[in-house]
Amino acid sequence: MSxxxxxxxxxxxxxxxxxxxxxxxxxxxxxxxxxxxxxxxFAAHGLHPHHVRDHGRAALAEIGGWAPYLAxxxxxxxEGSGLSAWKIGALNARTEILAAAAVTGExxxxxxxxxxxxxxxxxxxxxxxxxxxxxxxxxAWTLEPSPGRRVATFTEYGVVGKIGVNDAGLGVHFxxxxxxxxxxxxGVPVHVVARRVLxxxxxxxxAVRLARSARLSASTVLTVVTHDDARCLELSPAGVAExxxxxxxxxxxxxxxxxxxxxxxxxxxxxxxxxxxGTWLRERAAALGAxxxxxRAHALCSHREDGAPVCAHAEQTLPPHQRWESLATISxxxxxxxxxxxxxxxxRVSEGAWLTCSAGLTVVR
Length: 365
Known about the structure:
It comes from Prauserella flavalba. By secondary structure, the protein is an alpha+beta fold. It has twelve helices and 15 strands.
Protein backbone atom coordinates (compact mmCIF):
# COMPACT_ATOMS: atom_id res chain seq x y z
CA MET A 1 0.00 0.00 0.00
CA SER A 2 1.48 3.36 -1.03
CA UNK A 3 2.06 6.16 1.48
CA UNK A 4 -0.46 9.00 1.01
CA UNK A 5 1.00 12.43 0.32
CA UNK A 6 0.71 15.24 2.84
CA UNK A 7 -2.25 17.48 1.84
CA UNK A 8 -1.26 20.56 -0.15
CA UNK A 9 -3.05 23.88 -0.53
CA UNK A 10 -2.06 26.44 -3.18
CA UNK A 11 -3.08 30.07 -2.63
CA UNK A 12 -3.50 32.49 -5.52
CA UNK A 13 -4.78 35.41 -3.43
CA UNK A 14 -2.35 38.30 -2.91
CA UNK A 15 -4.31 40.00 -0.11
CA UNK A 16 -3.62 38.62 3.37
CA UNK A 17 -7.22 38.50 4.59
CA UNK A 18 -8.53 37.05 1.33
CA UNK A 19 -5.75 34.46 1.31
CA UNK A 20 -6.55 33.44 4.86
CA UNK A 21 -10.28 33.31 4.18
CA UNK A 22 -9.78 31.06 1.14
CA UNK A 23 -7.51 28.74 3.11
CA UNK A 24 -10.04 28.63 5.95
CA UNK A 25 -12.85 27.72 3.57
CA UNK A 26 -10.84 25.09 1.69
CA UNK A 27 -9.36 23.51 4.82
CA UNK A 28 -12.30 24.01 7.18
CA UNK A 29 -12.52 20.39 8.37
CA UNK A 30 -8.77 20.06 8.90
CA UNK A 31 -8.63 23.32 10.88
CA UNK A 32 -11.54 22.28 13.11
CA UNK A 33 -10.03 18.86 13.74
CA UNK A 34 -6.61 20.34 14.46
CA UNK A 35 -8.01 22.80 16.98
CA UNK A 36 -9.95 19.99 18.67
CA UNK A 37 -6.74 17.96 18.88
CA UNK A 38 -4.86 20.82 20.47
CA UNK A 39 -7.73 21.58 22.84
CA UNK A 40 -7.45 18.00 24.11
CA UNK A 41 -3.67 18.31 24.39
CA PHE A 42 -3.93 21.57 26.33
CA ALA A 43 -6.53 20.06 28.66
CA ALA A 44 -4.34 17.02 29.30
CA HIS A 45 -1.63 19.40 30.49
CA GLY A 46 -3.98 21.11 32.91
CA LEU A 47 -4.94 24.17 30.86
CA HIS A 48 -8.56 25.26 31.31
CA PRO A 49 -10.35 26.43 28.14
CA HIS A 50 -10.48 29.98 29.45
CA HIS A 51 -6.67 29.95 29.80
CA VAL A 52 -6.38 28.85 26.18
CA ARG A 53 -8.82 31.58 25.14
CA ASP A 54 -6.85 34.25 27.00
CA HIS A 55 -3.55 33.01 25.57
CA GLY A 56 -5.01 32.95 22.06
CA ARG A 57 -6.22 36.53 22.40
CA ALA A 58 -2.86 37.64 23.79
CA ALA A 59 -1.12 36.00 20.85
CA LEU A 60 -3.37 37.85 18.39
CA ALA A 61 -2.44 41.15 20.01
CA GLU A 62 1.27 40.36 19.78
CA ILE A 63 0.99 39.27 16.15
CA GLY A 64 -0.96 42.42 15.32
CA GLY A 65 1.81 44.58 16.74
CA TRP A 66 4.73 42.70 15.14
CA ALA A 67 3.31 41.46 11.81
CA PRO A 68 -0.04 43.17 11.10
CA TYR A 69 -0.49 41.45 7.73
CA LEU A 70 -0.25 38.03 9.42
CA ALA A 71 -2.87 39.14 11.94
CA UNK A 72 -5.06 39.92 8.92
CA UNK A 73 -4.33 36.52 7.40
CA UNK A 74 -5.27 34.82 10.68
CA UNK A 75 -8.49 36.85 10.83
CA UNK A 76 -9.26 35.58 7.35
CA UNK A 77 -8.58 31.97 8.36
CA UNK A 78 -11.01 32.41 11.24
CA GLU A 79 -13.68 33.85 8.94
CA GLY A 80 -13.23 31.13 6.34
CA SER A 81 -13.16 28.24 8.79
CA GLY A 82 -15.94 29.50 11.04
CA LEU A 83 -13.78 29.31 14.16
CA SER A 84 -13.37 32.17 16.60
CA ALA A 85 -10.27 34.28 15.92
CA TRP A 86 -8.83 33.44 19.36
CA LYS A 87 -8.88 29.75 18.45
CA ILE A 88 -6.75 30.40 15.35
CA GLY A 89 -4.54 32.56 17.57
CA ALA A 90 -4.18 29.62 19.96
CA LEU A 91 -3.23 27.29 17.11
CA ASN A 92 -0.48 29.65 16.03
CA ALA A 93 0.62 30.03 19.65
CA ARG A 94 0.47 26.34 20.52
CA THR A 95 4.21 26.34 21.36
CA GLU A 96 3.76 29.36 23.62
CA ILE A 97 0.69 27.87 25.32
CA LEU A 98 2.52 24.62 26.06
CA ALA A 99 5.52 26.60 27.31
CA ALA A 100 3.17 28.54 29.60
CA ALA A 101 2.19 25.19 31.12
CA ALA A 102 5.90 24.26 31.49
CA VAL A 103 5.40 21.19 29.30
CA THR A 104 8.41 19.10 28.39
CA GLY A 105 8.58 15.76 26.64
CA GLU A 106 10.50 12.87 25.16
CA UNK A 107 10.32 13.68 21.48
CA UNK A 108 10.79 16.45 18.98
CA UNK A 109 12.76 17.03 15.85
CA UNK A 110 16.28 16.35 14.57
CA UNK A 111 17.83 18.57 11.87
CA UNK A 112 20.95 18.29 9.72
CA UNK A 113 22.54 20.66 7.18
CA UNK A 114 25.65 19.79 5.19
CA UNK A 115 27.46 22.56 3.26
CA UNK A 116 29.71 20.77 0.72
CA UNK A 117 31.67 23.98 0.09
CA UNK A 118 32.48 23.34 -3.58
CA UNK A 119 29.58 25.24 -5.09
CA UNK A 120 27.24 22.32 -4.42
CA UNK A 121 24.00 23.48 -2.73
CA UNK A 122 23.42 22.63 0.93
CA UNK A 123 21.90 19.26 1.68
CA UNK A 124 19.32 19.37 4.43
CA UNK A 125 16.97 16.96 6.17
CA UNK A 126 14.92 16.84 9.34
CA UNK A 127 12.31 14.78 11.11
CA UNK A 128 9.15 16.47 12.35
CA UNK A 129 8.27 14.71 15.58
CA UNK A 130 5.02 15.41 17.35
CA UNK A 131 2.10 13.68 19.04
CA UNK A 132 0.78 10.80 16.94
CA UNK A 133 -2.82 11.89 17.54
CA UNK A 134 -2.03 15.05 15.54
CA UNK A 135 -0.67 13.24 12.48
CA UNK A 136 -3.61 14.51 10.42
CA UNK A 137 -2.80 18.13 11.26
CA UNK A 138 -0.03 18.30 8.63
CA UNK A 139 -0.43 20.65 5.67
CA ALA A 140 1.84 21.87 2.88
CA TRP A 141 1.03 25.37 1.64
CA THR A 142 2.37 27.43 -1.25
CA LEU A 143 1.53 31.11 -1.39
CA GLU A 144 2.57 34.56 -2.56
CA PRO A 145 2.62 36.69 0.61
CA SER A 146 3.61 39.83 -1.31
CA PRO A 147 4.08 40.69 -4.98
CA GLY A 148 7.17 38.92 -6.26
CA ARG A 149 7.75 36.81 -3.14
CA ARG A 150 6.76 33.14 -3.19
CA VAL A 151 6.88 30.70 -0.28
CA ALA A 152 6.39 26.97 0.17
CA THR A 153 5.90 25.87 3.77
CA PHE A 154 5.16 22.70 5.71
CA THR A 155 2.87 23.60 8.59
CA GLU A 156 -0.31 22.55 10.40
CA TYR A 157 -3.90 23.42 9.59
CA GLY A 158 -4.56 26.98 10.75
CA VAL A 159 -0.89 27.74 11.53
CA VAL A 160 0.65 30.34 9.21
CA GLY A 161 4.02 28.62 8.75
CA LYS A 162 6.81 26.45 10.06
CA ILE A 163 9.44 24.78 7.82
CA GLY A 164 9.89 26.06 4.28
CA VAL A 165 11.69 27.80 1.45
CA ASN A 166 11.19 31.04 -0.45
CA ASP A 167 11.92 32.08 -4.02
CA ALA A 168 15.04 33.95 -2.88
CA GLY A 169 16.59 30.58 -2.06
CA LEU A 170 16.34 30.85 1.73
CA GLY A 171 15.11 27.87 3.72
CA VAL A 172 14.03 27.38 7.33
CA HIS A 173 14.08 24.24 9.46
CA PHE A 174 12.35 24.24 12.86
CA UNK A 175 12.95 22.51 16.23
CA UNK A 176 11.43 23.34 19.60
CA UNK A 177 13.60 24.30 22.59
CA UNK A 178 12.74 24.84 26.26
CA UNK A 179 14.34 27.51 28.43
CA UNK A 180 13.85 28.67 31.99
CA UNK A 181 12.94 32.12 30.66
CA UNK A 182 9.87 30.72 28.86
CA UNK A 183 6.77 32.18 30.46
CA UNK A 184 3.00 32.61 30.34
CA UNK A 185 3.40 36.24 29.24
CA UNK A 186 2.54 35.32 25.66
CA GLY A 187 4.82 36.89 23.08
CA VAL A 188 5.06 36.67 19.30
CA PRO A 189 4.50 33.00 18.38
CA VAL A 190 7.64 31.31 17.06
CA HIS A 191 5.62 29.88 14.15
CA VAL A 192 4.79 33.45 13.16
CA VAL A 193 8.49 34.35 13.36
CA ALA A 194 9.33 31.44 11.03
CA ARG A 195 6.68 32.53 8.53
CA ARG A 196 7.81 36.17 8.50
CA VAL A 197 11.40 35.05 7.93
CA LEU A 198 10.22 33.08 4.90
CA UNK A 199 8.15 36.04 3.69
CA UNK A 200 10.83 38.71 4.03
CA UNK A 201 14.37 37.35 4.42
CA UNK A 202 16.79 36.84 1.53
CA UNK A 203 19.93 36.32 3.66
CA UNK A 204 20.73 34.71 6.98
CA UNK A 205 21.44 38.17 8.36
CA UNK A 206 17.91 39.26 7.40
CA ALA A 207 16.57 36.29 9.36
CA VAL A 208 18.70 37.20 12.38
CA ARG A 209 17.42 40.78 12.30
CA LEU A 210 13.78 39.68 12.12
CA ALA A 211 14.18 37.11 14.89
CA ARG A 212 15.81 39.64 17.20
CA SER A 213 12.95 42.10 16.66
CA ALA A 214 10.26 39.83 18.15
CA ARG A 215 9.36 39.72 21.84
CA LEU A 216 9.24 36.01 22.63
CA SER A 217 7.74 33.95 25.43
CA ALA A 218 8.78 30.50 24.19
CA SER A 219 11.94 29.01 22.72
CA THR A 220 12.70 27.44 19.35
CA VAL A 221 15.63 27.03 16.97
CA LEU A 222 15.28 28.15 13.37
CA THR A 223 17.97 26.65 11.16
CA VAL A 224 18.25 29.14 8.30
CA VAL A 225 19.93 28.01 5.08
CA THR A 226 20.99 29.77 1.88
CA HIS A 227 23.18 28.59 -1.00
CA ASP A 228 26.41 29.49 0.80
CA ASP A 229 25.46 29.97 4.45
CA ALA A 230 23.64 28.25 7.30
CA ARG A 231 23.06 29.13 10.91
CA CYS A 232 20.98 27.89 13.81
CA LEU A 233 19.15 30.80 15.42
CA GLU A 234 18.37 29.76 18.98
CA LEU A 235 15.38 31.87 20.01
CA SER A 236 14.36 32.35 23.62
CA PRO A 237 12.90 35.12 25.81
CA ALA A 238 16.43 35.45 27.25
CA GLY A 239 17.86 36.34 23.84
CA VAL A 240 18.75 35.06 20.39
CA ALA A 241 22.03 33.19 19.78
CA GLU A 242 23.66 32.12 16.53
CA UNK A 243 25.27 28.71 16.09
CA UNK A 244 27.58 28.38 13.08
CA UNK A 245 28.54 25.28 11.08
CA UNK A 246 31.67 23.34 12.00
CA UNK A 247 33.58 22.02 9.00
CA UNK A 248 30.54 22.61 6.83
CA UNK A 249 28.20 20.64 9.09
CA UNK A 250 25.36 21.94 11.24
CA UNK A 251 23.00 19.83 13.33
CA UNK A 252 20.40 20.51 15.99
CA UNK A 253 18.11 18.47 18.22
CA UNK A 254 16.13 19.99 21.11
CA UNK A 255 18.66 21.46 23.52
CA UNK A 256 20.60 24.71 23.41
CA UNK A 257 24.10 24.67 21.94
CA UNK A 258 25.00 28.28 22.72
CA UNK A 259 26.98 28.23 26.01
CA UNK A 260 25.16 31.19 27.55
CA UNK A 261 21.63 30.11 26.69
CA UNK A 262 22.48 26.53 27.68
CA UNK A 263 22.78 27.78 31.27
CA UNK A 264 19.00 28.16 31.24
CA UNK A 265 18.28 24.79 29.59
CA UNK A 266 15.01 23.30 30.86
CA UNK A 267 15.16 19.97 29.04
CA UNK A 268 16.83 17.16 30.95
CA UNK A 269 18.21 13.77 29.92
CA UNK A 270 15.71 11.92 32.10
CA UNK A 271 12.74 13.17 30.02
CA UNK A 272 14.24 13.67 26.55
CA UNK A 273 16.44 11.85 24.06
CA UNK A 274 17.73 15.14 22.63
CA UNK A 275 21.29 14.74 23.93
CA UNK A 276 21.59 11.22 22.49
CA UNK A 277 20.18 12.39 19.17
CA GLY A 278 22.48 15.40 19.06
CA THR A 279 25.55 13.22 19.56
CA TRP A 280 24.32 10.69 17.00
CA LEU A 281 23.76 13.37 14.36
CA ARG A 282 27.20 14.93 14.80
CA GLU A 283 28.85 11.59 13.96
CA ARG A 284 27.13 11.17 10.58
CA ALA A 285 28.13 14.06 8.34
CA ALA A 286 29.04 11.89 5.35
CA ALA A 287 25.75 9.97 5.21
CA LEU A 288 23.66 13.07 5.89
CA GLY A 289 25.38 14.83 3.00
CA ALA A 290 24.09 12.36 0.40
CA UNK A 291 22.96 14.00 -2.82
CA UNK A 292 19.75 11.98 -3.15
CA UNK A 293 16.93 13.14 -0.86
CA UNK A 294 15.68 9.61 -0.17
CA UNK A 295 19.17 8.39 0.68
CA ARG A 296 19.64 11.40 2.94
CA ALA A 297 16.36 10.67 4.72
CA HIS A 298 17.36 7.03 5.23
CA ALA A 299 20.55 8.30 6.90
CA LEU A 300 18.30 9.49 9.75
CA CYS A 301 16.95 5.98 10.30
CA SER A 302 18.01 5.30 13.88
CA HIS A 303 15.67 3.89 16.52
CA ARG A 304 16.00 3.67 20.27
CA GLU A 305 17.57 0.21 20.04
CA ASP A 306 20.19 1.70 17.68
CA GLY A 307 21.29 4.19 20.32
CA ALA A 308 19.19 7.27 19.51
CA PRO A 309 15.48 7.51 18.57
CA VAL A 310 15.95 9.94 15.68
CA CYS A 311 13.18 7.99 13.93
CA ALA A 312 10.56 7.89 16.68
CA HIS A 313 7.59 5.57 17.03
CA ALA A 314 4.76 6.17 19.48
CA GLU A 315 4.54 3.96 22.54
CA GLN A 316 0.85 3.08 22.48
CA THR A 317 0.72 2.16 26.17
CA LEU A 318 1.24 5.83 27.06
CA PRO A 319 -1.56 8.42 27.16
CA PRO A 320 -1.89 10.50 23.97
CA HIS A 321 -0.26 13.64 25.39
CA GLN A 322 2.90 11.63 26.19
CA ARG A 323 3.23 9.83 22.85
CA TRP A 324 5.69 11.02 20.21
CA GLU A 325 6.25 9.94 16.64
CA SER A 326 8.24 11.08 13.61
CA LEU A 327 5.22 12.20 11.62
CA ALA A 328 7.13 13.62 8.63
CA THR A 329 10.57 13.74 7.05
CA ILE A 330 11.45 16.99 5.28
CA SER A 331 14.25 18.32 3.09
CA UNK A 332 14.85 21.75 1.55
CA UNK A 333 16.51 22.41 -1.81
CA UNK A 334 17.47 26.10 -1.73
CA UNK A 335 18.98 25.97 -5.23
CA UNK A 336 15.76 24.85 -6.92
CA UNK A 337 13.53 26.54 -4.30
CA UNK A 338 11.79 23.27 -3.49
CA UNK A 339 10.43 21.76 -0.30
CA UNK A 340 10.30 17.95 -0.13
CA UNK A 341 7.84 16.45 2.39
CA UNK A 342 7.34 12.75 3.13
CA UNK A 343 4.64 11.45 5.45
CA UNK A 344 6.19 9.33 8.23
CA UNK A 345 9.61 8.93 9.75
CA UNK A 346 12.87 8.03 7.95
CA UNK A 347 12.27 4.27 8.14
CA ARG A 348 9.06 4.74 6.13
CA VAL A 349 10.55 6.90 3.38
CA SER A 350 10.16 5.56 -0.16
CA GLU A 351 11.27 7.09 -3.42
CA GLY A 352 7.83 7.70 -4.85
CA ALA A 353 6.00 9.18 -1.86
CA TRP A 354 7.57 12.65 -1.65
CA LEU A 355 5.37 15.72 -2.06
CA THR A 356 7.56 18.35 -3.70
CA CYS A 357 6.33 21.93 -3.40
CA SER A 358 8.02 24.71 -5.33
CA ALA A 359 8.27 28.31 -4.22
CA GLY A 360 7.18 28.93 -7.80
CA LEU A 361 3.71 27.72 -6.71
CA THR A 362 3.86 24.46 -8.66
CA VAL A 363 3.85 20.87 -7.47
CA VAL A 364 6.25 18.26 -8.77
CA ARG A 365 5.52 14.62 -7.95
